[in-house]
Amino acid sequence: MPSASPITISTFVAVQLEIVWKAWIRPVHIKKWNTASSDWYMPFAKNNLHVGGTFKYRMEARDGSFGFDFEGKFLKIETETLIEYVLEDGRRVSINFEKEGEGVRVTETFELEKQNSIEFQTQDWQSVLDNFKKYVEAL
Prior knowledge:
Elements: E1 7-13, H1 17-25, H2 27-33, E2 40-47, E3 54-61, E4 67-78, E5 82-87, E6 92-100, E7 103-110, H3 118-137
Antiparallel strand pairs: 1-7, 2-3, 3-4, 4-5, 5-6, 6-7
């Protein structure tokens, strides 16, 4: 059973903060990077970025075998610095954006769910973050 301790992952994106921020918050971009592998795609993304606002992302397996919604509510927003939200199952997530040299360090901390192992969840969330880095650096 997973530990109650949150997990923290991060990546360095060699792009200006303004571009990193826009790619993270705009649905047109979110749909292009927010999956853990190429076996998945995101046909729908809605993001109402303000405290109390909600988001909803639809993830689908490319083979049509499975799909699910990923949704939550924003708790704290500091433009180009911090996003905190709570998922519909009550887990909290925070994303920090910090200038570092010629780019941005994106650090994500998330509470674990009970269905999957710590290793699986860490790898899955890191894969999404790695996809974000790859997408933004190719813009």
